[in-house]
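Throughout our pipeline, every protein is held as a single compact record rather than as scattered files. Such a record has a labelled line for the sequence and another for the backbone structure tokens. The remainder of this section carries one protein's record, kept here as part of the documentation:
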Amino acid sequence: MIFWQQLRRSAAPWVILPAILFVSLYMESVAYTAPSHYGVESGESTIYALAVIAPAVAACAAWDSGRMQSVRHMLTTSSRSRWSLLLLVGTPIAALESALLVLAIFLSRINTGVFPAGAGWTGLAHVVIIPAEWAVIGWYAGKRLPKSIAAPAMAALCWTWLTMPHAMRNGWLRHLGGFIDGTSTITDVHRPEIYFVPWVFTSCLIVVAWLVTRSGFRPGFLAAGVGIVVAALFAGYAVVSGWGYSNPTTVRAYSSACSGTSPQICVPPEYRPYIPQIRQSTKAPLRALADAGVAQPKRMEILSPSKRPAPGVWPLDWSLPADDAGVVSQTPVDVIAGSAVEGTAAQYGRRPCGGPSAPELVWATAVAGNKDEVRQVTDPQLWGLVGPVLNAPAKQQSAWFRQQVLTHACHEEGAR
């Protein structure tokens, strides 16, 4: 009975419906491909809902804290313990966060085809911890400000801090807020530091909120709060300044699923059902490159960009089919042309560094695909270098291709 009374008086019932709408919009907007069945991605993709869950919970906590101002004396005079009363009052806030979290998990299950697994659980914990920390900040704000001001102010402040740094030139700032844009790839997993840093930074903000809203406020508390924020920013910068605009990752440990010969196709276990499709779609481009004198790989494998392929292995830069049938994300010709360049460079301990306009990549794309189509989209000056080679004997073409690969390749130490 008491719980339902608190729920009716809370801001949670008013917040939950618009929050559900915006969580659905956020989660739907990041579904680009067919389901990956990758548990890590499933857990981490729930972080996209953080931009809705954390502001909603912070605003609700600020409102409910302001609502309790008139009965705050009960915390000291009630027969119930202080912590049991706080737990009772905080239950609607926890229920709001739990409901939105369950929705995010459900939508992520639809997008990826599986529930969170492995390192994805850390991403899921992130969606619990950051909103809980902002709920505490909102609660402190509601103690000092009118609830009609504190609630929208906390929602705006939280949303701004989570999202706006991603539009700023200072790449390091986005790593402190906690809104992590992008998930782990099928070959590389986010390092746990990307979660720990915003957890610690936001806990520093909790201390600041406690200092500036506590009873018996003194100017020294404000100065101490400013000092904590400055120190936290400097410490955060020292940790994340080397990350740039991307999230640090480590190579994922897994056993590849392999099938067939000449060449053998190896993919992460989640992509095993796509092996027949990959083999069928790459047959013609591989045959065309073989006719032009390019040595065929023994194995094509989806590898981490930071992992050096063994001789005779072509890295397979293949991605899942686009979710929208009208969107063409990558063609088999593009996949095989890039693999040929990377695989040839790997035979000599190099990495390709020529970029998308490298002559060897244009040549491989023209050989593996439609020469006229490639000519139409290629710079005339570059085509003037590549075009004549296409009419040369196969042995001469392959020798030219190998020379161009090595000319534009980087040594392993200088590669990305």
Observations:
- The radius of gyration is 28 Å.
- DSSP finds 17 helices and eight strands in the chain.
